[in-house]
Amino acid sequence: MKKKCSMSLLCFLLVFSLLSMSIPVSADTPSTSISLDKSTIVLTVGQTDTITATVLPSGTTNQNLTWISSNPNVVKVFNGLLMALNEGTAYINVMNPSGNSSYASCYVIVKKPDSTMEINKSSAVLSVGSTETLTVTVSPSQAVHWTSSNPEIVQVFNGVLMAQKLGTAVITATAADGSRSVTCTVTINDAPTSITLNKSTATLGIGKSTTLTANISPALPTNAYLMWQSSNPGIVSVSGGVITGVSLGTAVITAIASDGSSSATCKVTVTASGVNPIRLGGANRYETSVQIAKQGWPNGSAYLVLATGNNYPDALSAAPLAQKYNAPILLTDKTLPQVTLNEITRLKPTQIFICGGTGAISKTIENQLNGMGILTERLEGKDRYETSVAIAKKLGSGSGELVLVNGYEWSDALSVSPIAAKKGIPILLTDKNAFPDSVKSFVNSNNFYTTYVLGGTDLISNQVKNQLPGSERIDGTNKYERNINILKKFEDSLDLEKICIATGADFPDALSGSALAANLSSAIVLVDNNSLKSVTTQYVTQSLQQTNDVYVFGLQGVVSDTVVNKLFGK
Q1: Helix or strand run (H / E) with residue 370
Q2: What is the average pLDDT value for the chain, to the nearest integer?
Q3: Domains and CATH numbers, the chain
Q4: What is the pTM of this model?
């Protein structure tokens, strides 16, 4: 009896299984597999791409798929659309949430954008004696080195072409890291005879002389010659290009072709001191910084550097950054002075670099600037050393040279600032006996080959100096002697027809003026308003005889006319 029952149950199960095989499958049955049209994708930051998923069997209708990125900070995904955000890797997974365990994956690699470099012209035609400016766009941003295949035909300086004589030369712009270069072929054609003078303005003392040099290109016809004339020989006399101050006043010197085909002029002013003093000062350090900005940037500036006027450390490295962005340096108090606010409004910058943390320049000021529609970028660190590194990183380090100064002695940094700015050299701060880790790390991660160590062992020890590549010390017994020794070191790269004067008693005027001095390709001479140092007067006498324009930072109480006259009086 028990055996019959077992047989009946087995037959029932067999029949049930056969019947089940004939029942149709619902269209909503979960899919059995998912596949992607791509298994690996390589993207660049900022790019997008699309992955297409295929669900099998093809007759299924439940394709409400879920897309997941294993690293959304690198790649985001939305219904198969990929967006590359940052360098790195991620897996893009797609699965069916209806209960089926099928899924598929795609491996995504995101790279940094490749360096790009573009020049505004691939060819140019100039006339002898003319100039033109080439511009280059580099991404990521970095310094550019310019060279000419034939400087006798075309010279180039920071993209400015100077046509010398007939012929062709190839101008090459190379990224500082050597990754890219672009060229422009420049052809120089003939041009009508033109006369140019080495100076368009000059300043003399009574009884003092200098020589004007005429450049004639192409040469005058054989039947013509060069003549020199003075609009007022009683003020300035001229003979064969040699001009002499006769009495106080102004006269125009003209170099003219005897056939009247071309001419050039130079305006000459005779003063008691023999120079043209340009005083840039205000009632306080903030007004002085504004006057300097107005002189150097009369038409405004797209960028601006803002530093505190109350202490110097955070801004000692600012001049090279200002020069890179052709920006003035303005000073602020704990709140933004009205005179500074007015100047910012006049300059109309689109971006302001803030030097230092909120302890130096408050968040309130930053918010105020943002409220004016100005972008701000704060360059800061936990101390003065890290802040100098932050500024140096923003500047870039393409020059291979480095300046190191004591972080508690402002005069050396500001003595070298215009020079470092013009040469694109970062300025870093150090303690006397301890090389800060943040500075050391930055130096070791860059390819510096020369370091100018400013000051004696009383400011920077040999223990620190010896840790720097190609270190060279520039010393002096005091700030004034170091100032002059720094100028002497770099004298060949300076335009000493112009010079800037600032007090050596305090930092603000020299800080604001360093950006202007760099724009002038000049330097700053520090003076003691109460007692001129002999090292300063000797340098002016020996090296600044051809100086015409003297930019004086501050009012009489800071740098007096008496000091200027003693320095330059003939």
Answers
A1: helix 363-371
A2: 88
A3: 33-111 (2.60.40.1080), 116-189 (2.60.40.1080), 199-268 (2.60.40.1080), 277-568 (no CATH)
A4: 0.62
